[in-house]
Amino acid sequence: MNIYAIIILATIAIDFILDITSNYLNLKSLSKELPQEFKDVYDEDTYAKSQEYTKVRTKFGFITGGFNLLLVLGFWFSGGFNWLDQIVRAWGFGELVTGLLYIGVLLLAKTVITLPFSIYSTFVIEERFGFNKTTPKTFVMDLLKGFGLSLVIGTPLLAGILWFFMYAGEFAWLYAWGVVTAFTLVMQYVAPTWIMPLFNKFTPLEEGELRTAIENYTDKVDFSITGLFVIDGSRRSSKSNAFFTGFGKNKRVALYDTLIENHTNNELVAVLAHEIGHYKKKHIIKGMITSVAQTGVMFFLLSIFLNAEGLFDAFYMEQMSVYAGLIFFGMLYAPIDMILSVFMQVLSRKHEFEADAFAAQTTGQPEDMVSTLKKLSKDNLSNLTPHWFYVWLNYSHPPVLERIREIRNQ
């Protein structure tokens, strides 16, 4: 076992231990007493149900996490990466096609093997707690559409990255970085119009009090959008959400039909104001710049380690290749990714506070945002008392009680 294997194994072990520890602490922090702030929204039965939901999902996470760990380690130390490499090479295709097939088979195999967990999560756990609205047909169609998009969009992108590192020389990482950056920017424009409608129906928000209230607010904050849409989220889940997507003249706001059903017009305007706050505070642009920078660093490091013989020895490979190196580097890069993700979570939570403040200030009705957060917590059976360590590792949004306190302190 060489230094590369030790680093990767240590990272896997640390990640697993942190996950187990944070989840254990999170379960221990569940409070039987309903926080005073939520007594106007929750009843005792709903609160108990939210705690049970947290417990069930956490225990399920222990099982799936343990299974994935055993799957990776078993395949690795049984020589599975080399075994598959020899099989794919024997098919007699060129290096580029061989690479696409090798990565494709690994991804497909993982999807098939873990599919029962996804089915159980959707049709047993989510069904038990009243969330699931997905039919077996919709579930299968989502899988097929996702697979089709991977072939149509993902395959050419992966092929381009492999080609650069195979044939473009020392500046391959720079070319790959440029292509991925361009792809990311293009997808910001393409996704709202062409990809998202493949999975959900987007219906223009009809004329009425809600649309008028939203348009009055967007005029007030000088925010132009090309469309206000209602998305049929109830087709898959009873959980509520809203999102803003697109740039420039292609900006869109989508409100889940479940959100509209359960909230007042003022509360819905507050939700919209929060999303617009992210745009006005340039959180989206900052996030994209950070993501692009991280991608550049990753490709640069990839160019350094891609030809490291020891990395291939760690996985018992008989032959070196760009495509296998791409996978092994992803595992070697995990420590950096783990550290960066924690900092990104901290930054994301900061941005959420700022967007909340923007919504409270520009609507002039902070209690509308507060009531929205309370209702969303109830509708989604959120954990109201998460442990700070779990939040630090996993939460992109601050705990709802912290958000409410910050809104009222404005």
UniProtKB/TrEMBL annotation:
<feature type="active site" description="Proton donor">
    <location>
        <position position="356"/>
    </location>
</feature>
<feature type="transmembrane region" description="Helical">
    <location>
        <begin position="320"/>
        <end position="343"/>
    </location>
</feature>
<keyword id="KW-1133">Transmembrane helix</keyword>
<feature type="binding site">
    <location>
        <position position="274"/>
    </location>
    <ligand>
        <name>Zn(2+)</name>
    </ligand>
</feature>
<keyword id="KW-0812">Transmembrane</keyword>
<comment type="similarity">
    <text>Belongs to the peptidase M48 family.</text>
</comment>
<dbReference type="InterPro" id="IPR001915">
    <property type="entry name" value="Peptidase_M48"/>
</dbReference>
<feature type="transmembrane region" description="Helical">
    <location>
        <begin position="99"/>
        <end position="125"/>
    </location>
</feature>
<keyword id="KW-0378">Hydrolase</keyword>
<keyword id="KW-0862">Zinc</keyword>
<feature type="active site">
    <location>
        <position position="275"/>
    </location>
</feature>
<keyword id="KW-0482">Metalloprotease</keyword>
<dbReference type="GO" id="GO:0046872">
    <property type="term" value="F:metal ion binding"/>
</dbReference>
<feature type="transmembrane region" description="Helical">
    <location>
        <begin position="288"/>
        <end position="308"/>
    </location>
</feature>
<dbReference type="Pfam" id="PF01435">
    <property type="entry name" value="Peptidase_M48"/>
</dbReference>
<dbReference type="GO" id="GO:0004222">
    <property type="term" value="F:metalloendopeptidase activity"/>
</dbReference>
<keyword id="KW-0645">Protease</keyword>
<feature type="domain" description="Peptidase M48">
    <location>
        <begin position="204"/>
        <end position="409"/>
    </location>
</feature>
<feature type="binding site">
    <location>
        <position position="352"/>
    </location>
    <ligand>
        <name>Zn(2+)</name>
    </ligand>
</feature>
<feature type="transmembrane region" description="Helical">
    <location>
        <begin position="6"/>
        <end position="25"/>
    </location>
</feature>
<feature type="domain" description="CAAX prenyl protease 1 N-terminal">
    <location>
        <begin position="24"/>
        <end position="201"/>
    </location>
</feature>
<keyword id="KW-0256">Endoplasmic reticulum</keyword>
<feature type="binding site">
    <location>
        <position position="278"/>
    </location>
    <ligand>
        <name>Zn(2+)</name>
    </ligand>
</feature>
<feature type="transmembrane region" description="Helical">
    <location>
        <begin position="60"/>
        <end position="79"/>
    </location>
</feature>
<dbReference type="InterPro" id="IPR027057">
    <property type="entry name" value="CAXX_Prtase_1"/>
</dbReference>
<feature type="transmembrane region" description="Helical">
    <location>
        <begin position="172"/>
        <end position="191"/>
    </location>
</feature>
<protein>
    <submittedName>
        <fullName>STE24 endopeptidase</fullName>
    </submittedName>
</protein>
<dbReference type="Pfam" id="PF16491">
    <property type="entry name" value="Peptidase_M48_N"/>
</dbReference>
<feature type="transmembrane region" description="Helical">
    <location>
        <begin position="146"/>
        <end position="166"/>
    </location>
</feature>
<dbReference type="GO" id="GO:0071586">
    <property type="term" value="P:CAAX-box protein processing"/>
</dbReference>
<keyword id="KW-0479">Metal-binding</keyword>
<keyword id="KW-0472">Membrane</keyword>
<dbReference type="InterPro" id="IPR032456">
    <property type="entry name" value="Peptidase_M48_N"/>
</dbReference>
